[in-house]
UniProtKB/TrEMBL annotation:
Keywords: Signal. Residues 204-230 are annotated as: Disordered. It comes from Linnemannia elongata AG-77. It comes from the Eukaryota. This is Lytic polysaccharide monooxygenase. Residues 1-26 form the signal peptide. The keyword Secreted does not apply. PANTHER family: PROTEIN, PUTATIVE (AFU_ORTHOLOGUE AFUA_6G10930)-RELATED (PTHR36182). The lineage of its organism: Eukaryota, Fungi, Fungi incertae sedis, Mucoromycota, Mortierellomycotina.
Length: 250
């Protein structure tokens, strides 16, 4: 996992931000691909949307059982979608307006692959400030040169989110299979991990966001291009650095 580099200092303390942005129990979960423990599984958890550490929720993936398996091929784009309680159907998009999505003012999202059951993670997409938001799709390209991964118990796609208005880290996973390049390589960029209790990672960290509690402006055009044009592939320009996630100490 990547060692976090912190940029500058927080302009406003997280405790003050929480008074400005709704902080209900809504939060979010990943519905496309369908993540573990969601309402589309046999093992639904009412804490699937919660942050890592909430009532002992474990890292990685929340510690949930295997969920639905989605099959992909290298070079395919995943149009990631999010879900909150109050959305009557996770298959219909976009959801109705007026939802309390508890975006916590946005933050920094990463989308990553694991081929070893969550022991290691490699980033294939990054969005900052406006992510996440249930009203938009967040496209992420599976690099054309990744190897195949056939064991759906070990092959995982994850969304991770460092929130803006509170020092919370979210991590939700989906079981997948990938048909890839026989000579392929995984990307070099390690997934960022912060604010996970009991682990040797940076604590009291949040991300610069858009400060909005409701609907955002959606994916940034440049970040969307990077997340869909091979920027994160092995040999791509992201390398081991990626983009500035805007992470700061509270």
């Amino acid at each position: 996992m990547k060692v976090l580099s912190l940029f500058g200092s927080a302009v406003v303390a997280a405790s003050a931000l929480l008074t400005l942005i709704p902080s209900t129990a809504a939060h979010m979960a990943m519905s496309n691909p369908p993540g573990q423990a969601g309402p589309w599984t046999k093992n639904q958890s009412n804490q699937v949307h919660a942050f890592i550490g909430f009532k002992g929720k474990k890292f990685p993936c929340g510690g949930y059982p295997k969920g639905p398996v989605t099959k992909y091929r290298a070079g395919q784009t995943i149009n990631v979608r999010f879900w909150v309680f109050g959305v009557p159907s996770w298959t219909k998009f976009p959801p109705k307006g007026g939802l309390n999505t508890a975006r916590h003012g946005g933050g920094a999202c990463e989308f990553s692959l694991s081929y070893d059951g969550g022991k290691s993670w490699k980033v294939i997409g990054q969005y900052t400030r406006t992510c996440p938001d249930v009203y938009y799709e967040w496209p992420v390209l599976i690099p054309k040169n990744v190897p195949s991964c056939n064991d759906s118990n070990k092959c995982l796609f994850a969304w991770s989110w460092t929130a803006y208005a509170t020092n919370q880290y979210y991590h939700h996973c989906a079981n997948i299979q990938i048909t890839g390049d026989p000579k392929g390589r995984l990307p070099e960029l390690d997934m960022t991990v912060v604010d996970v209790p009991g682990r040797n990672v940076r604590q009291n960290v949040h991300a610069r966001g858009d400060g909005k509690g409701g609907k955002s402006a959606g994916p940034n055009r440049d970040e969307r291009a990077r997340s869909t044009n091979g920027f994160y592939a092995y040999g791509g320009k992201a390398g081991k650095k990626g983009i500035d996630l805007g992470l700061v100490r509270s």
